[in-house]
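Okay, is this right?
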Amino acid sequence: MEAAEKTVKDQQIDPGMRAAFHAGRPSRVTVSTTAMMKTLTLVMMVVVPGGLLVLAAFILARTIARQMQLEQGPGSHRFARAVATVRLRDVWSNARALSR
């Protein structure tokens, strides 16, 4: 009965068995690397689309501001006409000019 009550710490384990025992468990480095990769993936999923949305809004606002300079009349009417006359081609060419 006493032999059954002994724990692994009480028993003598040769170095080969100890190495085999530790090889089956993930190390702390592996666990922290996995957690870091999950966190980095989450940040990329949140930041990249948000950043692209901000960039698209900036390019659209820049295109509308450029179009407002061409319009005549009071400010509110100029803004409404500028928004109505902006085309995707204008936004695309403005984005390409921004990248050059």
